[in-house]
């Protein structure tokens, strides 16, 4: 029997064995220093690992390891279910020859990334169920339109007299103040309208 035939028979045999027994999808859950895990009896918390949306599931051990045995040829997804941490989703492709290729999706909509097998599943961040209360900031108050609408007129009322005083001579400024004071007096305005006419009539009568 030639060498090529032996190679073909070996490949067929390996394919049949892998089809019958299936492959093993395994991995380990890890936590970076930025996302420290809670300690449970001196080990890591046990998390549910789901294969292909719930077709099969298992729990991770205290050292974070998990495995699915005798997985047939095909494409599968691997998800880590945790109420506290965010993990990547993995898409696993098992070929007829038993080769395993893995793509990692860190977040929905992010580009896929080819990774090695066994899987190394790292926690990205903690899930935020509540929005942190915003702290008081002076800049936020200054940027508020209502605050600007209130403070700008007050500043202008305080600033305009000082600008006018600096631009005019003292005598001119004093005269302008007197004219403004007279103009603001209602009796002066009435005299301006009627008093001048009355004086003229008196002059005519005297003539």
Task: Outline the secondary-structure elements.
Elements: H1 3-21, E1 23-30, E2 48-51, E3 56-59, E4 65-71, E5 74-81, E6 85-86, E7 89-94, E8 100-105, E9 113-115, E10 119-122, E11 125-126, H2 138-143, H3 145-167, H4 170-184, H5 186-206
Parallel strand pairs: 1-10
Antiparallel strand pairs: 1-4, 2-3, 2-5, 5-7, 6-11, 7-8, 8-9
- Which regions contain 5 or more consecutive residues with pLDDT less than 50? none
Q: Whole-number average pLDDT?
A: 76
CATH architecture of the largest domain: Sandwich
Please write the string of helix (H) and strand (E) elements: HEEEEEEEEEEEHHHH
The percentage of residues in β strands lies in 25-35%
Biggest β-sheet description? 6 strands, antiparallel
Family: Belongs to the EMC7 family.
InterPro entries: Beta_sandwich_EMC7, Carb-bd-like_fold, EMC7
GO molecular function: carbohydrate binding
Signal peptide: 1-22
């Amino acid at each position: 029997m030639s060498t090529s035939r032996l190679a073909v028979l070996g490949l067929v045999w390996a394919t049949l064995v892998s089809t019958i027994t299936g492959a093993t999808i395994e991995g380990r859950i890890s936590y970076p220093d930025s996302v420290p895990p809670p300690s449970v009896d001196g080990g890591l918390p046990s998390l549910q690992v789901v294969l292909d949306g719930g077709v099969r599931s298992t729990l991770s051990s205290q050292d974070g390891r998990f495995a699915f045995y005798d997985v047939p040829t095909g494409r599968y997804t691997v998800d880590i279910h945790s109420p506290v941490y965010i993990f990547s989703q993995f898409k696993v492709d098992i070929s007829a020859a038993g080769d395993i290729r893995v793509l990692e999706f860190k977040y929905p909509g992010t580009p896929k990334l080819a990774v090695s097998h066994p899987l190394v599943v790292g926690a990205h961040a903690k899930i935020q169920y509540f929005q942190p209360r915003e702290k008081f900031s002076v800049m936020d108050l200054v940027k508020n339109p209502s605050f600007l609408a209130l403070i700008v007129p007050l500043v202008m009322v305080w600033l305009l007299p000082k600008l006018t005083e600096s631009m005019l001579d003292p005598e001119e400024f004093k005269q302008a103040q007197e004219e403004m004071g007279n103009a603001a007096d209602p009796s002066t305005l009435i005299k301006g309208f009627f008093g001048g006419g009355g004086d003229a009539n008196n002059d005519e009568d005297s003539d």
